[in-house]
Amino acid sequence: MRIALTRDPAQAGPLEAGLRAAGLDVQFLPVTEQRLPADTTELTSALERLSGGDFAWVLFTSANTVRALVKLGWDGSLPAQTRVGVVGPGTARALHRLTGISDPWMPSGEKSAAGMIQEIPEPAPEESTALLLPQSAQARAELREGLTAIGWQVSPVSAYETDCLVVDGALAAGDPERRLLPLPAREDLLDLDRLAADLRRDRLTHVDPTVLLVTSSSAADGLADLGLPERVRLLAIGRPTARTLSRRGIPAASVLSEPSADAVMAALGR
């Protein structure tokens, strides 16, 4: 069976490895691109303040946030008093690989904004409450507001933005200057024209349909704008992604509670 994920090959990790180990042919159909903001003045200023010791904490909510800071020249250097936190293991791996920083704080329970709010230590009396929160330009206010409510003085900054690669119903080239990830190899990508031809050829056979794993709400919107051949089965990671697919008229066959190979295989009945 062929499965494609709506993210970039450079973001592949344990999920893709587990799918390949289960015997699936894994490809990618990135319909969005993560880019530095067009104006990086605010982000550059925040990095200067971080290096100067203005913040007691810096929190990373995604690997893309780490990539954005590194693309602007940050090498992971921090003042001794600045603590580092991440939302989960994937972000921790990217942080270590790109900067050498190991063993950051992360919530022991739920790996989410809610988990970070619930478990991050509250500011100690007489200590700095300044916290840097670089995030996606499209990030919700939940984390910022939750941290503020428990006493942190949060400085949010847009580290990157997610832009759709679908223009007039077709995939367009991205922006190599602002792009956070290297350009993907062609052989890693799902060819939609070839897929449509394959499906037409196989429509009267018992060949398994192609499965498309939709990884985010922004990817769901991109897919709806792109259009898909018939017999492509959609799996959504998380209920927000599933709601976006439903709203755009291409509902998912199944909704995964977690981004794991086990969850995918269970949804496929394997």
From TrEMBL:
It is an enzyme of class 4 (lyase). One of its GO terms (molecular function) is uroporphyrinogen-III synthase activity. Its EC number is 4.2.1.75. Residues 15-264 form the Tetrapyrrole biosynthesis uroporphyrinogen III synthase domain. Pathway: Porphyrin-containing compound metabolism; protoporphyrin-IX biosynthesis; coproporphyrinogen-III from 5-aminolevulinate: step 3/4. GO terms for biological process: protoporphyrinogen IX biosynthetic process; uroporphyrinogen III biosynthetic process. Signal peptide: none annotated. Keywords: Lyase, Porphyrin biosynthesis. Pfam families: HEM4. It comes from the Bacteria. It catalyses: hydroxymethylbilane = uroporphyrinogen III + H2O. Catalyzes cyclization of the linear tetrapyrrole, hydroxymethylbilane, to the macrocyclic uroporphyrinogen III. Belongs to the uroporphyrinogen-III synthase family. This is Uroporphyrinogen-III synthase.
